[in-house]
Amino acid sequence: MSLHHAAFDRYLLGVTPDLEVTVRLDVLEEIDGPMLQHGLQGFQGRRIHVPRADHLKPNRDFLAARDALFRRAS
Q1: Are the beta carbons of 11 and 70 closer than 8 angstroms?
Q2: N or C terminus of the chain: which is more exposed, having fewer CB within 10 Å?
Q3: How far apart are CA 8 and CA 72, in angstroms?
Q4: How far apart are CA 60 and CA 19, in angstroms?
């Protein structure tokens, strides 16, 4: 499992319906070296790239529901 999938599953980072990555505040404030800085913290505020084909794009309703869970977990 990739680092980012695991972080998403553990509510360490989320993706808004507008496809923007949000990293949990305590993770952003953590000082633990370059792996954390470049592996997670550096994604704060960045937009994810999605496939061009509509049927392959993330479901925005799912992202909205998941984002609400992420914000409650934060």
Answers
A1: yes
A2: N
A3: 14
A4: 8
Which of 44, 68, 7 has the alpha carbon at shortest distance from 60? Answer: 68
- In contact, 22 and 14? CB cutoff 8 Å: yes
Nearest to 45 by CA among 16, 12, 74: 16
Is the CB of residue 10 less than 8 Å from the CB of residue 27?
no
Look up the pTM and report it: 0.86
Q: Give pLDDT tens digits for 16-39.
A: 999 999 999 999 999 988 888 988
Give the range of the structural domain holding residue 23, as residue numbers without chain letter. Answer: 3-73
- Ramachandran quadrant class, 4 (left: phi over 0; alpha: psi -120 to 50; beta: rest): alpha
Q: What is the DSSP letter of 52?
A: S
